[in-house]
Write a structure and sequence with these properties.
single chain, about 220 residues, alpha/beta, 7-stranded parallel beta sheet, 3-stranded antiparallel beta sheet, 10 strands, binds fructose -6-phosphate
């Protein structure tokens, strides 16, 4: 699969913001699947600056920690701070896995118009850790040691990182009409290349994307 190399983080963010912009303009009631983490921060900044009409857009976040003692490290807080509180989205159209009203219904996030993904250094997408079934749907998962270590940068110590999360599954992600994967930093290149151009295996969850017919992958170092 082609990995589209961007000259820097700013180009990566604005290229993907254009894709989201065109999607929302073409279909104002688009269903979007969105990631958290450090990679999409620039994308969300760009989207805020573009002053799009989010009134009818529905968003489904990929995952959320299973720990109600944290708030400022929760993915809902991240999305509020980086995107939702700066745009005119209707609060009723914001969905997170684990929202009691909809979870564990399997329809969570299905048939999205556009799904944006990051990739973990172990090849995870959402919190589908290595070994996750390609048939998986929304469910509670134990986080991989590598993920806990990687995400400890957002916490005071590694011990504070939640050990479990609720994640959208790989089968649901694959039902999206279009998927865009973004990766930033040399530490991501190796796994990105393995996932896109190596064997399709549950050991590398992102490799499932090779089976989708409408995926774009953007990378900058
Ligand atoms: C977060 C998510 C994760 C991240 C991945 C990369 O919602 O789904 O799969 O996309 O862990 O995270 P960053 O961007 O922080 O390197």
């Amino acid at each position: 699969m082609e990995i589209k190399i961007q000259k820097d983080y700013s180009e990566l963010s604005s290229t993907v913001a254009d894709i989201v912009k065109h999607q929302i303009q073409r279909k104002p009631n688009s269903r979007l699947i969105l990631p958290t983490g450090s990679t999409p921060i620039g994308l969300y900044k760009e989207l805020v600056n573009r002053k799009l009409n989010w009134k009818k857009v529905e968003t489904f976040n990929l995952d959320e920690y299973l720990d109600n003692t944290i708030w400022e490290q929760s993915y809902r807080y991240f999305m509020d701070e980086n995107l939702f509180k700066h745009i005119n989205i209707d609060d009723d159209n914001i969905y997170f896995p684990g929202d009691t009203a909809i979870w564990p219904e399997m329809s969570y996030g299905e048939n999205a118009d556009l799904c944006i993904l990051g990739i973990g250094t172990n090849g995870h997408i959402a919190f589908n850790e290595p070994g996750s079934s390609f048939d998986s749907e929304t469910r509670v998962v134990d986080l991989d040691e590598q993920t806990i270590e990687d995400n400890s940068r957002f916490f005071d110590s590694v011990d504070d990182v939640p050990k479990q999360a609720i994640t959208m599954g790989l089968k649901t992600i694959m039902k999206s009409k279009k998927i865009v994967l973004i990766a930033n930093g040399v530490h991501k290149y190796k796994i990105l290349n393995v996932a896109m151009n190596g064997g399709v295996t549950e050991k590398v969850p992102a490799s499932i994307l090779q089976k989708h017919n409408n995926v774009e992958v953007f990378y900058c170092d």
